[in-house]
Write a structure and sequence with these properties.
Helix content: 25-40%
Largest sheet: 5 strands, antiparallel
Number of helices: 5
Radius of gyration: 26 Å
Number of strands: 5
Oligomer: single chain
């Protein structure tokens, strides 16, 4: 008899704890819960946070544009050209997709530059960062023509679902960079 009461009490405590945990987890994962601090109510018990892409889901695409020119104010630079790498999607990509790593690294670097710019980082700090160097080298490698001496890249956010005049938002315009950096030998110059 006494053992039965102990089992019922343990079961009731476990059911109550599980119910409290489920309610707290649900409250903690509501859209406005990033300001909600439930730690004082759960006694230090860790609550799982399943935000995935919320509260800031991806609603834009980052594009990489370049233009070439002589790099000073006397010449006229070329028109901006979109050189963002495209990735083909196939059903086999779910299992194996080795060509996605390069574009993903470039996308991550462009996203990092976007974050730096949004947080009002100084331009000289941005241009000395690793993401800036990676995007510069990627743009250099993706240039459609190499007849000019220098190039600039432009990062833009493209919002497909926005109204027409608000779809494109410039993020960052680079400094004029040399197409062939000093000290590097291109494959045509090797003997």
């Amino acid at each position: 008899m006494r053992l039965r009461r102990v089992r019922r009490a343990i079961g009731a405590v476990a059911a109550g704890a599980l119910t409290a945990h489920l309610i707290a987890t649900t409250l903690f994962n509501t859209p406005d819960s990033f300001n909600l601090d439930l730690r004082r109510y759960v006694g230090g018990w860790t609550l799982p946070g399943w935000r995935f892409f919320a509260p800031n889901p991806g609603v834009q695409n980052v594009h990489l544009l370049v233009r070439t020119g002589d790099g000073d104010t006397t010449g006229t630079p070329s028109q901006w050209q979109d050189i963002t790498p495209t990735i083909g999607h196939h059903i086999a990509n779910v299992v194996f997709h080795p060509r996605s790593r390069g574009p993903k690294a470039l996308f991550d670097a462009m996203q990092q530059l976007s974050v730096m710019k949004a947080n009002y980082s100084r331009f000289d700090w941005i241009t000395s960062s690793t993401p800036y160097e990676l995007v510069t080298d990627a743009a250099r490698g993706l240039l459609p023509s190499r007849t000019d001496e220098r190039f600039q890249f432009l990062l833009v956010n493209f919002f497909p679902s926005a109204v027409d005049d608000q779809r494109v938002q410039p993020i960052l315009v680079s400094e004029w960079e040399h197409i062939r950096p000093e000290g590097r030998v291109t494959t045509g110059e090797r003997n």
